[in-house]
Design brief:
Length: 417
């Protein structure tokens, strides 16, 4: 069943401009014809106040009652056009097809059901015009007095109106589908932009800590500039400096990777073992105090290399930062029907239930770190899903379910090699 659609603000505004220009043109036409023909122009003159009142009301109410405002305006237009037809030609002149303006406008603004309804309504108005002529209200110009001369032209005009209503309904349906798709895409872009700003704002806050620590290290070096540093102090400051720089590199890389879920990238096959190897190499000494067991079978999944690396990096970095020294972490993968599931398990203290509930929530200034929310966003962008659950016997377990790619499909890394 058809529905009456709601025009957007752009269409409402432009339709209002068209009404204002059309009303002005109608007034000029009435003045010219009145000078030529005098009082018989009264059917056209009636349209002037009608258009003025309806157009004024339209500008006042269209934003609050868009569908009603457009529908009332189009009905007024049909009546005014009927007055023009009553003056020139009548039902047998072919001018009935001027109603196509109303039909097409209804389809563009209100959708296919409105186009069909307006075609039917305009056909009824044309038949009413024929009845008015038969009781003695004849057009001033181009009137054919014989009914037999008017009926064939009227029948042809009604057929044209019906055809235009049908075609307008078809094209209007597709037009409004495209408008809806464009609106959905625009909203998605707006939403992605909002998410990007949220992630970047949160990540910028997290950079402040390593920057402050870097400033402290610099201060210690400046304070010791006048004397020699003991070997132990040099080693301590060098270790601290390396740790701070690694943290900064991680946070800056995270901000860079926020753009991954904004990009409309084409899915590609990704090798999970290669991703895990790259991540462990990038983390380097940050995992020295942990026991790492990486045993990932040759599983290929569908995703984005950069996004997949960031997902695994954040999960493993989370273990490095939030579990005590000596914690064991195991990284593996399993395959199910259509999916390759990466599993990161540690035997650390686990995550409290109240914190676990909001691990993947969008970041804010009081919420969790940006790493895990970004993991969820990147997974969604790749058509994957990330889940947390307590590990049996204590600790944490993160599972990332990717869509599985055929094992014979070469990854970009293999193609480059």
């Amino acid at each position: 069943m058809g529905v009456v659609l709601t025009p957007d603000d752009v269409l409402l505004r432009r339709f209002g401009y068209v009404r204002a220009v059309g009303g002005t043109g109608w007034l000029v036409t009435v003045v010219v014809l009145f000078a030529l023909f005098g009082t018989p122009v009264w059917p056209l003159a009636l349209g002037v106040p009608v258009l003025a009142v309806v157009t004024t009301w339209y500008f006042m109410r269209s934003h609050r009652y868009p569908r009603t405002a457009v529908a009332v305006s189009l009905m007024a237009d049909a009546i005014v056009l009927g007055g023009g037809i009553a003056f020139v030609g009548g039902s047998g002149s072919g001018l009935v097809m001027a109603y196509t303006i109303v039909i097409v406008s209804a389809g563009i603004l209100l959708g296919p059901s409105a186009a069909r309804a307006s075609a039917l309504g305009c056909g009824v108005l044309a038949l009413v015009q024929l009845g008015v002529e038969e009781v003695g209200f004849e057009p001033v110009l181009l009137f054919a007095p014989e009914l037999g001369e008017r009926l064939p032209i009227l029948a042809l005009s009604l057929a044209v109106l019906g055809g235009i209503g049908y075609l307008t309904a078809i094209y209007a349906s597709r037009l409004h589908e495209l408008i809806a798709e464009a609106g959905a895409r625009a909203e998605a872009v707006r939403h992605r932009g909002h998410r990007s700003r949220s992630f970047i704002a949160k990540a910028a806050l997290e950079i402040e800590q390593p920057l402050q620590e870097l400033d402290e290290v610099t201060g210690e070096l400046e304070a010791a500039a006048s004397g020699d540093l003991a070997a132990g102090d040099r080693d301590r400051l060098a270790s601290r400096l390396r740790r701070v720089m690694t943290r900064l590199d991680s946070e800056i890389g995270l901000i860079t990777d926020v753009g991954t879920f904004d990009a409309e990238s084409r899915p590609e096959p990704v090798s999970l073992p290669r991703v895990v190897d790259d991540v462990l190499a990038a983390l380097g000494g940050r995992l020295d105090s942990h026991t790492v067991d990486a045993d990932v079978p040759p599983v290929k999944v569908v995703g984005n290399r950069r996004a997949a690396r960031r997902v695994v990096y954040n999960l493993v970095e989370n273990v490095a930062e939030h579990t005590p020294a000596g914690t064991a972490v195991r990284i593996t993968a399993v395959t199910t029907a259509g999916h390759g599931v990466l599993v990161v398990v540690d035997d650390g203290p686990g995550i409290p239930a109240d914190v676990a509930e909001r691990l993947f929530d969008p970041p804010d200034t009081s919420g969790p770190r940006v790493g895990l929310p970004l993991v969820a966003e990147l997974c969604a962008a790749m058509g994957a899903e990330c889940r947390y659950e307590p590990a049996p016997g204590g600790g944490s377990r993160f599972l990332v379910a990717f869509r599985r790619a055929p094992s014979s499909t070469p990854t970009p890394d293999e193609q480059q090699a």
